[in-house]
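pasting for the record
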Amino acid sequence: MSLLKTMKQSQLIKASFWYTLGNIFIKGVNFITIPLYTNLMTVDEYGKINNFLAMVTIAGIFVGLSLEGSINNANFEFKEKIKEYLSSVLYLATLIFTGLFLLGNVIYLFGDTYFSISHKIFIFLAIQAFGSFLIHFLGAYFTINVQYFRYLLLSLLSILMNVGFSLLFMVTVFNDDRYLGRIVGSTIGIGVLGIAIYLLIMIKGKKLINLKFWKYALTISIPIVPHLLSQTILSQFDRTMIYNYAGAFDAGIYSYILNLGIVLSVLWGSTNSAWVPWFYNEMDKKNYQTIKKVSSIYTILFAGATLGTMLVMIDVAKIMAPDEYMVGVPLVIPIMLGFYFQFLYSLPVNAEFYLKKTNYIALGTIASAVIKVLLNLIFLPRFGNLAAAFTTVISFFFLFLFHYLLSKKFIGHSLFDTKLIIGVTTLLCIISGLLFYLIDYTFIRYAIVVLLVIIVFIYRNKVDFLRI
């Protein structure tokens, strides 16, 4: 009980509360737009736009070389000069983006389309990717300094401008080509906000070239690039592979269910934003037992949230889109389970970031991405969307396992309760399997989950992995 009382008074809980509350509102806007987009666009157009967004995410890794990944550590090492650090590193990112943008345009001299992206769309993709990088860059600074209100304001402006301009262009200028309207609108929204962020950082930092800062940032960030690229393949590349192997319609179905995962994405993103600075501080103090106890509670709560989200989203998926999308409802279970393993992986990978072992971080992520691509190549042509959903679960499981073993090796012992993680994860997988086969039996699904909650509550002190 003393631990729980301490947690209630902690900065971690306070930050988690505000991040979660704010992100529920922010992502709620995104969630509400799902039925708007699915009804404004055909399933094929919805598939095409999500393929574009997946490519934006991949491009976003390269246009800034993931330099925002160095801000957590730089905030501790260059605390007194952090504003100068930000402006100098952002200038470095500008040089990188300019070079890649020019190179991309030269490549299009030899062909009209690459990865289903035309030259015209490439221009919008590049601008949107750099704008997104700028938002993440400033957001990383707000997060490590626990400035959650500023972080939430930035996120809110980002989503409102993205959605607002997109819908405006889709129903006016580009009413006959809503796919293009969505792209143009979101690019303008993110681009305008990106310009404001760029000017703010440069005016406050007033520093362009600092080779010491550049070397420090590149040393940390460059090894992260293959990690983030592999991570993007794990979480985003499904849509592109489905688009190319099965067509825009199947990609649209898969994207619709994946977008419903916003609910778990909000919870994970919000709590992780609070967890990172708290975790860094506890690691500085070598409070390993506190980390183990709090992470155990964190794991149980997130597993419960995953199960609850699965249960509800099955029914939500049936009412949020036209009938054409209903074939994708069974995908809810494996996609939500994939989010759970993504959460699990974030625990050990934060330890690796703290230890600056970014060279090793990519190893586990690349291995998992290779597993993902190979499984998709084997099973996607035969089983379609369902195969992509289950390969996501498998690859994220291996992602967690690789990073768990790496962090244990670097630290010399496990920071987390292995027995608890195995017990909770096994139970969640068993219940998920039952829910998958009971998609059309609403009453039975809810009855099973309610019964499970009652049993866990009654026997919580008799089950080892539920003891905290």
